[in-house]
Predict the structure.
Amino acid sequence: MPLVRVEILKGKSSEYKRAILNGIHAALKEALKIPDYDRTQRLYELDKSNFEIHRQRSENYTIIEITMFRGRSLEAKRKLYSEIVKNLKCAPGIDGMDIVIVVHEPKLENWGIRGGKLPNEAGLEFKIEV
């Protein structure tokens, strides 16, 4: 049940934004083996005055934060980062140097899902340990 937050500069097309969300979701499915329906993503567009970008980065600078259950292996995380960069290079054409990915992994006891249950008590249809 990854929760995805993406921050970009305001002014990109709907197709550009959709390509980002689709690319991230495809990477999550490939690397973490989540089901296709498990998709919770938010995209925030910021004005230039509210988004300082290092001068060596382009107007396509993209920050991706993923909050997910603990338990994924280092190998799965490496694959996730690689897949995201590969997918976003393909569409919408973001250079890997303009992508920053941060993963947050709160303890399972800090999640309340499916009516306030802990994840390990909620009958998940997928494995967390990949």
